[in-house]
Amino acid sequence: MIHASFSRRALLQGTAALLASTTFVTEAFAQASRRLIVAADSEPKNLNPAMVASNGVFFVASKVIEPLAEASFTAKDGLAPRLATSWEGAADGLSVTFKLRSGVTWHDGTPFTSGDVAFSALKIWKPLQNLGRLVFANLADVETPDALTAVFRFSKPTPFQLIRNALPVVTSVVPKHIYDGSDIATNPANVKLVGTGPFKFAEYKPGEFYRLVRNPTYWSAGEPKVDEIIFRVLPDRAAAAGALEAEEIHLAAFSAVPLADLARIGKVNGISVIAKGYEALTYQLIVEINHRRKELANQKVRQAISYAIDRQFVVDTVFLGYAATSTGPVPKNAPEFYTADVAAYNFDVAKANALLDEAGYPRGADGTRFELKLLPAPYFNETKQFGDYLKQALTAIGIKATIVSNDSAGHIKAVYTDQAFDLAVAPPVFRGDPAISTTILAQSGQKPGVPFSNQGGYANPKLDAIIAKATETVDTAARTELYKDFQKLVVDDLPFINVAEWGFITVARNSVKNVASNPRWAVSNWADTEL
Amino acid sequence: MTVLSRLMRQPEGLFGVVILSTLAIVALSAPLVFPRDPLSIVARPLIPPLSDWSVPLGTDRLGRDVLTALVYGARASLSVGLAAAATAVVVGSLVGTLAGFIGGIVDEVLMRVVDAFQIVPAFLLALALVSVAGPSLGVVVVAIALGAWTGPARLVRAEVLSIRERDYVAAARVIGMHPLEIALAQVLPGAIAPVLALSSVIVAAAILVEAALSFLGLGDPNTVTWGTMIAEGRTVLRTAPFLSIIPGVALVVTVVGVYLLTDGLNEALARRRVKA
Amino acid sequence: MRRSLGIVGRRAISSIPVLLIVIVGTFFLMEAAPGDAVDAYLLSMGGGDAALARDLRASYGLDQSILSRLWLYLSALARFDLGWSVAFGRPILALIAERLPNTLILMGAATTFAFGVGSLFGIVAGARPQGWLDRVVSIGSLTLYAVPGFWLALVLSLIFSVQLRWLPIAGMETIASGKVGLDRALDIARHLVLPVTALGMIYLALFLRTMRAGMVEAWRQDFVLAARARGIPRGRIVLSHIARNALLPLVTLLGLQSAAMLGGSVVIESVFAIPGFGRLAQEAVAGRDAPLLMGIIVTSAVLVIVVTLLVDLTYALLDPRVGASERAK
């Protein structure tokens, strides 16, 4: 009898499940009136932007913790004030003075003062932050003559241009009274953020969502304009587009909707595709080269590879037009530094083949000149697809490339620690100033184990001299000139090959207003975003 | 021969044989009919199927020919399936034979290892191994085989235990054959028939696991498999659904073919046993 | 009762060496991986210098030798301490306790669905072997059995969530909804309809095929022939004799499939953004978090052992011969 009752119960349960699947009907958006729901694809373990200056962290944390200044389309020098209201560099490059905003309080009610800035700079930005370690390498002290003034003192001349360009990225201010005296790396506030921004950190459910709520005492009157922001974790890349269409989320930034889907989703009623708002977050598609390979140590071979890449095809096919071709190591949308006056590599297979013949690598009986290992970075669909394209482009000039695929951690180790690559595809970020994360791609003497640096063994004393001189040249015009020389030399000698540069795409429901209101919009504070 | 003819006489078996032999012919003749590298870029990207006869099934995101990829994909997917099943069956049979024949502490240790592999979800193991060792076809084959060899091992061990006391094995022992020699020459062949039936299920499972790994981005980028085709087509699922539907259908048809063959084979073996 | 306790005891003891093999194997697998937790972390930061990497390695104990780390891990495990996750910066036990229930609910529902519907259709098909209904159901189940779960998941969500909007597209429940009690349970149920279907379908086919095979077998048995000879109506024979007999192998299958289903949930959880165990495993591998992956694998191994044990106990209760044969070994 046991058998029979067991089966009957199982059957009943099965039927119940089936019935359940047909009777439910979806309710549209969540209940709260002004709740903005946004897709997030990663959950950084450390959400403290003062320590981890990366876009993944800023995406969530920038709404809670603010920098001294933010990028702007219209303001002078492209910078709008946030926690600082003015900034002034001394002519000798040895100090920078910040005037701070008055009447600002932390989310726990404590007033914001210059002590917080000094603490953040000396205890976090300089010693702990991935980019601050470089920008503030010569920071000796921060003086606080009064509660609203902070004077940064440098031991060596430090270009004010660099500091200024780095402000939005490296100067997120955290509260001294929360961090002082604790182990900063493990402080719980690295996840439960406390800041001065328009939103307060409310809740984090791992694997599900982050919830931020309106800060009623935000210093900018009338802001923020929404009550809540939910960052909904959707790890699957196909999920964001569907969720937008099903009206389960309002907005997907950082190209969470695949490029190939944009043309279609742009036609869906109530959804717009927005290509603005990433101007200060330019990603560059480059081919990293291991100069230890004797073939690749030959400048002619590198130039041949550069000629073999059809940059326009890459932009049209891999990026579906949402990118621009590159001419050199500084992107076109950084007009302060960019120069078009560099050698041009227009797609020319015949010329590439001629250069390889000239270099002394004739085609063998099977049409192959030599073989290479190609490691495309796995972080983006586009870097992987470009890897597939590059393999084919190299075949056309008689170089046989084998793609070696790793997951992210494996790729970092293979390229930047073990240097076990011949060619690699990388997506470095241009962060407003070549000194922050661009020159490191060509400068010699990089220790193994440093991601996104020159690990290809390239060493050019002339280029190194220019880079070194620029880091201590205080005069803005002279410094800018040096970086133009840097571009010419890089394009000529090709320590790495620039292929394309792209910003990301935001897809949003039309109900969201003021999207892309500044050049770092996705990672800015969203105080003016409306629903 | 009698098993084969019995197999062909049932609709299931016949269908299975027809599907799989067609696939095998297509896969083997691929380099003759389509001499170009399936990864080469031949036309405009995203041409829909049946609109341009130089690329009858259309092109993918980069302008590669879908038909060529499909045919080469058959080669790769079937090879992965067969190689993984072969590895699993060979390793499993050896372990099972040793454990069953030697017995004692060896049996105990080997069976605990089998237990260990059986309680770890096979897909988790494959996922970890491929992430760690990097996705090449060889690694994928090993990863799939790691999760599949325990079935044959148990089966063979059980068969060996039932066979080893039979007269001819005992006789071999009496005439002084080395235990290992007996195991390989006398015991293993007797145990192989049920293992073969199991192995076709492993082939089908292996093809599916390869596809799932590729879906998670763990396919070999230098080879076209149906799994990598589905995974790549997925980013354009809404705009160009044919890119993942075509290899998806091919995958389902193949796996159905394998199952039909297995069913037919089991039935044919069962009838033979009944007659004997 | 004493017999059951005996089985439990023997199983517990015999599973210790098995678990040890699993742990040590996983440890060395992760040890062989290119890149460690610090590489993965630096990537998420967008870079960092060599000194930072060295400091981080030291603070996570990654600069110690392999064997001393393995020893530390094993001795902590003996105190039921699963350790600290580098990738998440949290205790592993807390992570697992947070994710496991979601997966258990998903798997439980999928098993129930697969078992219920599968055995039902198995009975339908096996009631008249080789009849047209049997042919249709068998071919259908074969096709279902051949469809990859991730593919089914994509198609289902496209149809029911995006096009028809009947069901939510992803997640375990409506985010930050504040729902409690029955409301919340219904909400979770709604979210689970698609993942459970996608995960359960292949097992449904499996149960169906096993059930049908068992029934086909049973038709040839003497007691069935006898029942037919006595003129018992066909419907009653099917239900009370044949189906009842064919159901027992399905119970065994339940235990065998628990490990496979846990693996299958990796892909389904990733497609439907369910914060479960499978996704945690994927994140552990991507973050090169060896202790976390070991924690996950050990927990899933224990889970599988427990499920198998429960199945065996059920079996022992149903069939006294099982306990006896186990004692005889």
Characterize the biggest β-sheet of chain C: 2 strands, antiparallel
The separation of the N and C termini of chain B measures 15 Å
**Global outline of chain B:** elongated
**Secondary-structure element series of chain C:** HHHHEEHHHHHHHHH
Total number of helical segments of chain B?
11
* % residues in beta strands of chain B: under 5%
In whole angstroms, how far apart are the ends of chain C?
19 Å
Tell me the helix content of chain C: over 70%
Q: Decide which structural class fits the backbone of chain B.
A: mainly alpha
Q: How does this structure look, described?
A:
- The complex is a heterotrimer of chains A (531), B (276) and C (329).
- Chain A is of the alpha+beta class and 531 residues long.
- In chain A, 32% of the residues lie in helices and 19% in strands.
- In chain A, helix 10 (299-308) packs antiparallel against helix 12 (349-358).
- Chain A starts with a helix and ends in a 22-residue tail after the last strand.
- Chain B contains eleven helices and no strands.
- The radius of gyration of chain B is 22 Å and the shape is elongated.
- Chain C has 329 residues and is an all-alpha fold.
- In chain C, helix 11 (277-286) packs antiparallel against helix 12 (290-318).
- In chain C, 49% of the residues are buried.
- Mean pLDDT of chain C is 81; it is low at 322-329.
- Chains in contact: A-B, A-C, B-C.
- At the A-C interface, helix 1, helix 2, strand 10, helix 7 and helix 14 of A face helix 2, helix 3, helix 5, helix 7 and helix 8 of C.
